[in-house]
Design a protein that fits this description.
Blueprint lengths: L1 H18 L16 E4 L11 H6 L45 E5 L11 H4 L8 E7 L13 E7 L7 E10 L5 E13 L2 E24 L4 E27 L2 E13 L2 E9 L7 E8 L1 E15 L5 E23 L2 E27 L3 E22 L13 E3 L5 E20 L2 E18 L3 E17 L4 E11 L10 E2 L8 E2 L9 E13 L4 E20 L9 E22 L4 E18 L6 E2 L7 E11 L4 E10 L4 E4 L3 E7 L2 E9 L5 E7 L6 E8 L8 E10 L3 E9 L1
Parallel strand pairs: 2-4
Antiparallel strand pairs: 1-3, 3-4, 5-6, 5-36, 6-7, 7-8, 7-35, 8-9, 8-10, 9-12, 10-11, 11-13, 12-13, 13-14, 14-15, 15-16, 15-17, 17-18, 18-19, 19-20, 20-23, 21-22, 23-24, 24-25, 25-26, 26-27, 26-28, 28-29, 29-32, 30-31, 31-34, 32-33, 33-36, 34-35
């Protein structure tokens, strides 16, 4: 513990020393007041290809990587804030802010989409289209988002001289010299009042994971040794479009669409050596797991600005995600093989959301937004299980014996309505106060193997106060009641991909939303003369109806657990970030980054009856990185090192306890821009070939009985990945 404390303290000191370097306080900041403006000319020496390349050069603004913040995204369109990342369980609707609390807009507008979102568009917009980028740190009724830590607004030129095309062709090299090519093509431009971005991409991925497991019995005698080779050879194809039409000076509309097809077949070879007898016999298993998914999404919005500075806006989104997978397992013998498992899972998730609002001024320094949001989300799920054994077989389960699985066929639907009011007050030139009040009412119904319907109501207030102590230093504090998203997959029976000895895991028809009071205090200091950014976040979250594993056993001969509400708990922590340009050493284009997160939590365990940390929650994270642009050589290079603070990262279930750990990860890249404007990039990922490990303690019966049956030591690795990419525009 003492070494861990010293380690975290040294990381924190490194962050502070980056900001305290000599000369860091000597000159003026970029931009005026709390809004920081980076004109297109700022990026000329870097020869960027896309808008994302430009954003990556702004200290503290790179959106590529790092464990993000967020105490779980709020529901619907509302924006989220900072905090730990491991309490999030997915988002429906338009979701919250970006990881770390930043929201990205284009021309002051966010994209009405989930998969086809604003941040993804930045890779498809050429740098020649960007007029300037501004970092907006105050709240405002004129913004398209509310409550984000800060807003990144990418402003494009009103008139474009011609159509622009950006493209990249890449080649990935994986373990065992496997190579997969891919590419992306994007067309963007403007014709009259219409601006458009159209893109298509093909992304093949090859993934090999090697796993070894050594286990001992409860009396510490050898049990078995397992070697597993899992191969995934997937291909993802996407087509997307983003349209923006200006009807006039006061009226505009946007339409976004995305279609994606993903094929992800897996194959598994498993070698099981029995160590309990001599000589050690070996069993061989093979698994074939074809899987595919298809999804589409359409979103849009319309906005009208009245002469009195009021604004009417309506947004909508519709999407669908169709997933299917088949898992078949075979015992392999010298003269053939025999099937022993058939497990088919299918799910169709649909979502429809509409939101409308009207914003108007109240005097000179206040505005009010009134509106409502409605949403319908549904899951149609089916599971079929067959095993080898005695009984009547069926071709419906691959010629095996059908097994009746509870809650295998289900439809889950949520219908939600949310009226809201958002008040923004510019108290004085240095202080803003935003107050939000939302009332949510919803009905969750389930039909099929189980029939159940429940109504929920939540009042969700939020207060966000920001004070600019100086143009460089901003203090932010917020208090908010957040309702976390439910995962519909938790309601129904599903494939258990965490345990080779268990085929399925149970669903929970009585699950209800987890919610929390979220208290955050943030400080951000933008060093003068664009030296960089220092920021810190202290948070405390009081969780209610926390969702983790609970006992749902019906038959004592077949113990069952599922995700359920286990009670109230609390979480607290600190996160610090630094992004510093080394101007004090005459290296203005060398940017160093560092981050540190330390966090803890407490909740009563439903199986063991004592307080522990939240399941699968790390003690924190830290990372170091650098990016060095050398314009005179048309070259830039960089790297990143990331580490999770291991120790007591656990998961308690009905009959076992798991402890997780893992090695740090590192990556490096180098880019060269040739005389034709082509960017040649070579990147290495997972260069340290890190292992992820798990220790699992299995018990006879319930874990509370304390009768140890087996201890498993399991680690896996997937090797280094090299990526070569050529990007350009014309």
């Amino acid at each position: 513990m003492e070494n861990k404390f010293r380690y975290c303290l040294s990381t924190a000191l490194a962050i502070l020393l980056l900001g305290a370097a000599p000369g860091a306080l000597a000159q003026d900041n970029v931009g005026e007041e709390s809004t920081v403006i980076y004109p297109a000319s700022y990026f000329d020496e870097f020869s960027p290809i896309t808008a994302q390349d430009m954003l990556d050069r702004i200290p503290g603004m790179s959106s590529r990587g790092g464990p993000g913040g967020g105490g779980g995204p709020p529901r619907g369109f509302s924006s989220g804030g900072g905090g730990p990342s491991n309490v999030t369980r997915g988002g429906r609707g338009f979701g919250g802010g970006r990881s770390g609390g930043n929201e990205i807009l284009i021309n002051g507008k966010r994209t009405a989409g989930k998969n086809n979102n604003t941040s993804g568009i930045l890779d498809r917009i050429t740098a020649a289209q960007v007029d300037y980028i501004e970092i907006i740190r105050d709240t405002s009724g004129s913004l398209d988002v509310r409550g984000s830590g800060q807003v990144v607004n990418v402003v494009l030129f009103e008139e474009l001289s011609d159509t622009s095309v950006s493209y990249d062709v890449n080649m990935d090299r994986y373990l065992r010299d496997e190579v997969r090519p891919g590419g992306n093509f994007a067309l963007s431009g403007q014709s009259g009042g219409l601006s458009y971005v159209v893109s298509a991409s093909a992304t093949p991925r090859y993934f090999e994971q090697f796993t070894w497991e050594d286990s001992i019995l409860g009396d510490y005698s050898p049990n078995d040794y397992i070697w597993e080779e899992r191969t995934t050879d997937s291909s993802t194809y996407e087509f997307s479009t983003n349209l923006d039409y200006q009807f006039g000076a006061n009226s505009s509309a946007r339409l976004n669409a995305l279609y994606s097809q993903n094929d992800r077949p897996q194959s598994v070879m498993r070698y099981i050596t029995d160590l309990k007898v001599e000589p050690n016999p070996q069993d061989i298993e093979r698994e074939a797991i074809p899987g595919e998914s298809a999804s589409w999404e359409i979103g849009g919005d319309y906005e009208y600005l009245a002469a009195n500075n009021s604004r009417f806006k309506v947004l909508f989104i519709a999407n669908e995600n169709d997933n299917s997978a088949l898992r078949e397992r075979f015992d392999v013998f010298a003269d053939g093989e025999e099937k022993n498992l058939f497990l088919s899972t299918d799910s169709l998730i649909t979502e429809r959301i509409v939101r409308s609002s009207y914003t108007f001024d109240i005097g000179d320094n206040m505005d009010l937004e009134l509106g409502a949001e409605g949403a319908q989300t549904a899951l149609d799920s089916a599971l079929a299980l067959g095993i080898a054994g005695s009984g009547s077989t069926s071709e419906a389960v691959g010629g095996l014996v059908p097994v009746n699985v509870a809650n295998a066929i289900s439809e889950v639907e949520e219908v939600r309505y949310e009226p809201f009011a958002i008040h923004n007050w510019i108290v004085n030139p240095r202080m803003t106060l935003e107050s939000t009040l939302l009332y949510e009412t919803s009905t969750i119904s389930q039909t099929g193997d189980f029939n159940n319907s429940r109504d929920f109501e939540f009042l969700k207030p939020k207060v966000d106060l920001r004070y600019n102590l100086t143009p460089q230093l901003q203090l932010r504090g917020s208090v908010e009641r957040v309702v976390l998203q439910l995962s519909f997959a938790d309601f129904v029976a599903a494939n258990d991909d965490q345990d080779d000895d268990s085929n399925t895991q149970a669903g929970n028809v009585n699950l209800r939303q987890e919610w929390l009071w979220k208290y955050d205090f943030n400080a951000e200091y933008r060093l003068p003369n664009d030296y960089g950014v220092l920021s810190g976040n202290i948070y405390y979250h009081a969780h209610h109806d926390r969702i983790e594993r609970i006992d749902v056993t019906v038959d004592e001969n077949n113990l069952q657990s599922a995700n359920g509400n286990i009670g109230d708990g609390e979480m607290w922590g600190f996160r610090g970030n630094a992004a510093i340009r080394m101007r004090m050493f005459d290296l203005p284009n060398l940017q160093l980054t560092a981050s540190l997160t330390v966090e803890d939590s407490s909740i009563m365990d439903p199986f063991l009856g004592y307080e522990r940390r939240f399941q699968n929650m790390a003690r924190g994270f830290n990372s170091f990185g650098f990016r060095h642009d050398i314009p005179r050589w048309n070259l830039n290079w960089g790297g990143r090192w990331m580490n999770r603070h291991d120790g007591n990262i656990l998961r308690v279930d009905i009959d076992d306890i798991e402890y997780a750990s893992g090695d740090p990860r590192g990556s490096l890249f180098v880019e060269y821009i040739d005389s034709r404007g082509l960017t040649w990039r070579l990147e290495g990922q997972s260069l340290s070939n890190p292992e992820s490990c798990r220790e699992r303690l299995r018990y006879v019966g319930r874990v509370s009985a304390g009768i140890l049956e087996e201890i498993e030591f399991r680690c896996n690795y997937s090797g280094r990945v090299l990526n070569f990419k050529v990007s350009g525009t014309f």
